[in-house]
Amino acid sequence: MDTRELLRNHASVRKYTGEQIPRETVMDLIETAQMAASSHFVQAYSVIWVTDENKKQKLGELSKNEFQFLTAGASFLFCVDFKRLQAAGQKHGVDIVTDSAENLLVGVVDVSLFAQNFVVAAEAKGYGICYIGGARNNPAEISELFNLPKSVFPLFALTIGTPTKRNETKPRLPVPAVLHENAYDEAKYDALLEEYDATMEGYYASRSSNQKTATWTKQMADYLIEQKRPYIKEFLAQQGFTWK
After folding, report:
1. Residue numbers in the chain where pLDDT is lower than 70
2. d(CA 116, CA 122)
């Protein structure tokens, strides 16, 4: 399929055949991912390829997503990384600033763009993927497990592999709900969200597995009614990101 069709058919995969991803394929995917845009070319990312079975199992437990790793062909931990940039500064006698809110955003964006390049390249080869934000469920313990130093923190894990089946693609929000022209327009949300709820209710009722009765707005209301992972700010400060 062409690039547009590939992107429009993305769906997360949670069960794979167990076939391992060859090392040369992983290296190719990482090299392709590195061609993503990077703010000021800082390339503030590192990836842990988890090949140790005990560490993989522990990562599954700590992320509360054990099932995601059982059949994956390869498993990774994507990290924001300013440690390498500190080493670059030291070569020139400079102590670089890592603890600003701006640099935190730069790192998160860099990792996300890098990872999405990785994902698109993997899907172009016929693999399936799943992002695992659960790596932030126990970030301190995961950092210890993988010996992450200060100025580095885990953003998400990711599994790839050969899917046992292709899942249906979830309908996204209508384009007018996310596209504003010249100025932000919140007045359109009532009608557009009503339309989208009907679309998602139909999708959930008719998909091939895990049918349920649900709407998007109710799911979001239930999910965002309380603060998630309230320890994240303190953990980031421990890793050297104090939001200055």
Report:
1. none
2. 10
